[in-house]
Amino acid sequence: MEKKAINNLLEEKHQELFNWLNKQEQNYWENGPEGKWTTGQHIQHLVDSIKKLNHALNFPSFVLKYKFGKANREVRPYEQVVQRYQDKLIENKEKAKNYNAAVSTPSEKKFKHLLRTLNVQNKKLQYKTNKMSDSKLDNLIVPHPLMGKMPLREIIMWTAYHTEHHTKDLIENYS
Asked: What is the pLDDT of residues 39-49, one digit of tens each?
């Protein structure tokens, strides 16, 4: 997937989330199905995830290369990245559950701040993606807690899907 298409996908998936959030009633960030995350926890998780990626992209290429190595395979297409993530979620339900257990429900003030932060972080990721060379996107890798090491292009595509994944969950279970 080309950089422009990735950025369009990031924008589209985040906009779908914000559109849904804008239609919700008061105190919706505190609400969630029994035994599931609240809306606020979903947003906290998405902010934490995209901030970690943007932080990693701040490092010089040689640091990422030294710390994590270089890709030893071709970049997977978006659909394959999505399918691998879905498969990994099924295979590792307990690991995913434990990894995310510490996410707390934010206050209203913090939730509003998180929404602004998510929007800013999304724009930063698009900017960084656009400025990065195709060679770096395809050859530099970073670790994903569930999927292992991934080329930057894949983890950025995954970030768009990750937002879609949580948006679908919110739409299906929180409306």
From this structure: 999 999 999 99
What is the distance in angstroms between the CA of the first residue and the CA of the last residue of the chain?
33
Model confidence pTM above 0.90: yes
| CB proximity list for 29: less than 8 A, separation 6 or greater | 38, 39, 40, 43, 105, 106, 108, 111
Longest C-alpha distance within the chain, in Å? 49
Q: Which tens digit of pLDDT belongs to each residue from 52-105?
A: 999 999 999 999 999 999 999 999 999 999 999 999 999 988 776 776 677 888
Q: Per-residue b/e over 41-73, b at no fewer than 16 CB within 10 Å?
A: bbbbbbbebbbebbebbeeeeeebeeeeeebee
Give the model's pLDDT for residue 113: 97
SS3 state of residue 9: helix
Residue 78: both structure tokens together: 């978006």
Element (H, E) at 140: none
CB 43 within 8 A of CB 167: no
Plot region of 60 (φ>0 → left; ψ -120 to 50 → alpha; else → beta): beta
